[in-house]
Amino acid sequence: MRPKDNIEQKVNRFDVDINDQKAKVFIESLLKVHSKNNKLKSDNNRFDNWRFIMKNGKIKFAAVILMMLSVMTYNYFRTGSIDGATIAWADTKIAMQQQQWLHMTSDIENINGEQWMNYKNQLYYVKLLTGKTWMTDIVNQTKIEYDAKTNTLTKQIFELGGEINMSSPIKMLLSMHDYFSQAGESTYLNEVIDGHDVQVEQFDLSGDFGIAKRKIIKMYIASDSKLLIKISLEDFDDKGLLIKSGKAILKYPNHGPKDIYGLGVPQDAKTVDLTIPNSN
Amino acid sequence: MLEDKILIFKLSRGNSGALCRIYEKYRHYMLKIATALLYDASAGEDVVHDVFMRLAQSAESLKIRSSLKSYLRTCVVNGVRNKVRSNEVRSYVELSKVGDIASHERSGDHYCIIKETSLEIANALRQVPFEQREVIVLHLHGDMKFREIAQLQAVTTKTIQSRYRYGLDKLRSILDSEVK
Q1: Which domains does chain B possess?
Q2: ipTM above 0.95 for this complex
Q3: Touching check for B158 and chain A: CB below 8 Å?
Q4: Cα separation values, B179 from A230, B13, B99, Å
């Protein structure tokens, strides 16, 4: 008698093929139906992502910074154009393209800790103060997470979706900038940090962001290197009192962790590989 | 998932890009479920296309309380049930004729076809009572827990577990007899 799992595996292997040409034809007819029923202005769509993010109380404060970095990093990977953005952004993108690594230290809520991004190999390492440690391989779409309690490394498939891939990262970058520009006043300031001249783009946003009614977001771009070196966020309530603040410091080292063990994971950690189908 | 929430939001604002993205993201998942439940790629395709057409028509008034994935899956299941109720699906096919159907479907340049390697299991699934087949397909292909399927079929979780077990036993015996 065959084991039960064998039959489950057989059912699991059931699959279909889709004819891409026919799918294209279907999408065209789908869009026709949609446009007939669509009475809303499409002009607003460009700003929808960021309006949603900023107004959604459930989305953590830290998400804003993660989104900015995701957009910038993903934009780098896709090497698209950012026509329409400010000159500073265009220069920043070019400058970031020349970097091998990005290192970020932040003191913001659930991303309190260190992160490294290896641009060349598209690897992303995170070590938070809570002990949570993981790495993501964007090319191979895998994620390895370390659980200190069980001293176990779990490798699993990472879906390149969610907060990184939102139809078009380039549009998101533009829309982010545009939304900030539209939603509030954007001012440019010059500051000096650690003896270096820095250009600061400050967005002062007013609106209903959950408890917060006003947000000040600052992006610090080094005048000499044109690199984004700091992001800061401040939330204020309806009385103008500061209720939350945080910052992320960005550096661009030549080297980073070689692997997840470079983040301090013990060499004797057990490994569970969930990317291999169960062969029982 | 944040992307899905944004897609729903954008779709409700009339964004056609969001509709395309939802289609690209979930069409394969939905077609697999529909086709496995119906053993008919054309019927499965009809169900999935209907779901997307309704989505396109009602995008503005769309209110999805669950996740987008479970919403689409429920739409597919409802569409399949309607087809089964109205007897619009192909009846059981002898294994010897499976190849004929497959080649017929392939010759017509169809939108969706069952993979050659899946024909045997698809035909065996077709012979399992619908309630059991639904549990098997939704659990193994729809990523649904027994508890969730129990809610969908309005029975207890134990009943779902029994249906799953009996369904697998039936599948095993069908496949065993076909081998002999």
Answers
A1: 2-90 (1.10.1740.10), 128-180 (1.10.10.10)
A2: no
A3: no
A4: 66, 54, 16
